[in-house]
Design a protein that fits this description.
Layout: H1 5-14, H2 16-24, H3 26-32, H4 39-60
Helix pairs in contact: 1-2, 2-3
């Protein structure tokens, strides 16, 4: 069963430990959290969450 991208985004928003693990090793963080994703979805997820993190950093640094 593949994972819904919204589920992963919710985990990113609500779980600081997952977020930190994802920054270091996205594939391992997803696996440890019980998510199964296709290579295409993994690429999308990395892009979305990386962009989200950059936007957050910009707000903090203002």
């Amino acid at each position: 069963m593949t994972t819904n991208l919204q589920e992963i985004y919710n985990e990113w928003q609500n779980n600081p430990r997952f977020r930190e693990q994802f920054k270091k090793n996205p594939e391992q963080a997803l696996k440890e959290a019980g998510f199964e994703v296709s290579p295409e979805d993994l690429k999308k997820i990395k892009g979305i969450l990386h962009l989200k993190d950059e936007e957050f950093d910009k707000r903090i640094n203002k």
